[in-house]
Amino acid sequence: MADNLLRQRRNLVVLSSLLVVFNFSDITITKVSILGTELLVGDPTRLAIFVWVAWAYFLVRYYQYWREIPDKSLVKSFLGRFNNYAKEYADKKYRRGQYSSVNYKLRNESIYSWSFNQETVDPVTGNSPDEEPISIPFIQVVLWAIKSLVFVCIKTPHMTEHVLPFIIALFAVISTIFTTAML
Fold it and tell me: Does some domain include residue 109?
């Protein structure tokens, strides 16, 4: 990761975490010490506004640097794992033994209707016979998506490096709304 992105991620995570701790621990700020000088806080809401402005700035800066990353590999990792599950399913269930090369293209006609288009090549003739699409149960597609998401979240660094700062920032907003509503 680039140094600028790391710095903005750190700033966003630290400030978001402090906001969450501040919200749930019921801290009241009365004095702030800067270089040994104590400042009395007259209206803590003004200080909170400043902190939220800084938080918004860090969120925007992190997003800008994050957008500059050419290949985040999140989607690529997810789709790669998803396609592996789909290929294993098709190989187990539908593979024809006489063909040496089998490629499956996953298609969805609608959200509930998924199928494979099987492209096979006959090693003798080099022809690709037309075959019917292989239908896939919707629940199977949902299970592959969940397994792929869990894989990307747990077994790759993409989630913690790129997505977790956004989640922590969102949690800071949710915790503030929650604690404010409880008052």
Answer: yes
Domain presence at residue 169: no
Give the alpha-carbon dihedral of 35, 41, 46, 52, to 10 degrees.
Answer: 50
In tens, the pLDDT along 82-110 reads 878 877 777 776 655 444 444 555 555 66
Of the residues 29, 53, 72, the one at which a domain ends: 72
Angle subtended at Cα 24 by Cα 19 and Cα 27, rounded to the nearest 5 degrees: 75
166 within a domain of the structure (yes/no): no
Between residues 74 and 11, the one the model is more confident about: 11
Q: Which two tokens stand for residue 43?
A: 């209206």
Q: Is residue 156 in a domain?
A: no
What confidence tens digit (pLDDT) does each residue in 138-148 have?
Answer: 788 889 889 99
Q: What is the mean pLDDT of residues 41-53?
A: 79
Contacts of the segment 87-94: beta carbons below 8 A, 24+ positions apart: 89/136, 89/140, 89/144, 90/116, 90/118, 90/134, 93/134, 94/118, 94/134
